[in-house]
Every structure is written in C-alpha cells, then in structure tokens.
Amino acid sequence: MSKQIPWPDGVRCAAAITFDVDADSILHLEHPNSAHRRVGTQSWLRYDEVAVPAIVDMYARLGLRQTFFVPGWCIERYPRMVEQILAAGHELGAHGYLHELAHTLEPEREHELMRRAIDAVEATSGRRPRGWRGPLYSFSDRTAELLAIEGFTYHSGLMAHHLPYLLRTPRGDLVELPCDWANDDWPQYVVSLDFDWLVGVRPPERAFESFIAEFETAYATGGLWIGIWHPFVSGRPSRLARIERFAEELLARGDVWVAPLEDIAQHIAHLASAETWASHVVELPYDERPLG
Question: How far apart are CA 96 and CA 288, in angstroms?
C-alpha cells in the first residue's frame, strides 16, 4: 500500500475552502437570556446574510463547488440564505443544532440535537448530510459512534493527524478530514467582547501568511489543506477579495484538486476500502472513563 495519497487524475494535493455559517446562533448559545439585547454583536454575526451571497457568487466565477457547514437552527431561521447555497450546487454539511458543544451534553441530548440538525439539512436539501463538523471543533467520547449510527460518511474538525484518517467506532468507520487552528480565520481577524476573544485584527495579507504556509506544506507533501472560515468574518470585502485571489492561484497551478469535502471523503473511503493507501486509524473513544 502507498503511504502517499493517490489523488484523482494524478494531482499533487487536495484543497477545500469551507465556510461555517453560524450567524447569531453562537450568541444565543453563549448568552441565552440577553442575546436579543446585544444588537451590536448580533449585527456583526448577521453579516452572514450579506456575505453568503457574495461567497456563492465568487464560487460561481471560479467554477467551484464547495462545502458549507450550517447549524440546524440557522437553516430554519435563514432559509433564503441556505437556499442560495443549495441552488448553486454546494454541499450542505451539518454543524450542530444551535452550535452546542458536544462534550457538554449527555449522550441522549447530544443524539437528540444531532438528529434535529440532520432533519433540518434533509428538510431543506432533500438528502441527509454526509458530513459533520462539530461546532468549535467540539467532539465528545460518543460523537463518533453517534455519527456512524446516523450514517455520516465523514467528520471534519479533529486534529490527530495532518492527513485524512479513519475514525474507528463500534458502529463502523468514518473518514476524518482534519482541521487546524492555523487555517481558521478567528485567530486572524476576530475581536469580540461578548465572546471574550480579543486578538489584533490583521490585514488579509498578514492572515494569509499563515494560510499559505500551511497550504504550501500540504502541496509539497501531497496532503490535504482545508480552510475553516466564517462568512461574517472572512466574507468582508477586502478579505473575500484575498480569498478569491488565493483560489485563483490554486486553480492556476493545475495540479490541485479543489473539491467539496464530500468528494474528498468519498475518495479517501474508496482508497481505504481498496487498501491502496495506508491510512492512519484512530479508535474512539480514547478513554472510557475519567482517569482520576
């Protein structure tokens, strides 16, 4: 078996520019009793309604189909925004219901909210989601098994390897398409008193120093690069313009497979089943109980 990932058509590496469309779900989760009064922050988060159409238009110009992860609550609250994503042929992945953190929930409640998120995706798109990204990369000791029970193909958000790998559960395997904070836009751009997140806001060129460094290493080693961005953060005009230029540069190389995550996961699953690539395997959960 090959240790190098054999990507389709002999390309050198794979890449995906994904967006987590959280809107104001995160504010209602963090401040359930006062979110309606925090209008300033709510207006910042609801910029998704402006940014998502601009992102969809950008992908149309580039001829790309990509992946959007959306909480179930946002799908229900902002149906027109989600319909624009689907009308353009993009993948709609599940992202929790109200952006809840899996490790804070009892297994029954985690499963209940997962099913609500699945139902929202299915009601809007006409099909069950293939991919899940845990809100804020949250993942409990039961999440993998619940995802397998619900028929997910892949998860994207764990960080146990820089290459795709398999999550092994008692109910079957999932493909993990790993992420990393180095490719997330929050450490680059976000200042929010309501979320206790205070970093120096960088200009797009500075932010892309990090993103490009990560991509170039993935390109050199035949790996996978995933951008984890948010419309209300990276959909602002100067940042989105820099994203478009970055995407154009990837496409111009001619040997980068820029694809939605469901296609990448399907390819990895095929390689694993055909035993043509030596995939890393992680058995979950790591621990069954507190170590004390």
Answer: 23
Query: Which 3 state secondary structure label does DSSP give 280?
Result: strand
Q: Give the H or E element holding residue 134.
A: none
Per-residue pLDDT reduced to its tens digit, 139-180:
999 999 999 999 999 999 999 999 999 999 999 999 999 999
Which residue, among 189, 241, 187, 253, has the nearest Cα to 215 in the 3D structure?
253
Report pTM.
0.96
| First-to-last C-alpha distance (Å) of the chain | 40
Query: In angstroms, rounded to a whole number, what is the distance separating the alpha carbons of residues 109 and 102?
Result: 9
d(CA 15, CA 64): 12
Residue 260 CB neighbour total at 10 angstroms: 23
**Residue 290, preceding peptide bond in cis (omega within 30° of 0):** no
Burial of 258 (0-12, 13-18, 19+ CB in 10 A): buried
d(CA 56, CA 44) in angstroms, rounded, equals 19
Domain 18-281 -> CATH class: alpha beta
> Which single residue is written with the structure tokens 């925090």?
38
pLDDT in tens, 77-105: 999 999 999 999 999 999 999 999 999 99
* 112 to 163, 178, 223: CA distances (angstroms): 31, 25, 35
The pair of three-digit structure tokens given for residue 93, joined into one six-digit string: 């992945």
Structure tokens at 200: 């120096």
Handedness of CA 178, 231, 103, 133 (dihedral sign): negative
Measured in degrees and rounded to the nearest 5, phi and psi for residue 250 equal -65, -45
Distance CA 83, CA 95 (A): 17
- H helices present in the chain, as ranges: 25-30, 39-45, 48-62, 72-77, 79-87, 107-125, 143-149, 186-189, 204-221, 231-234, 237-253, 261-274
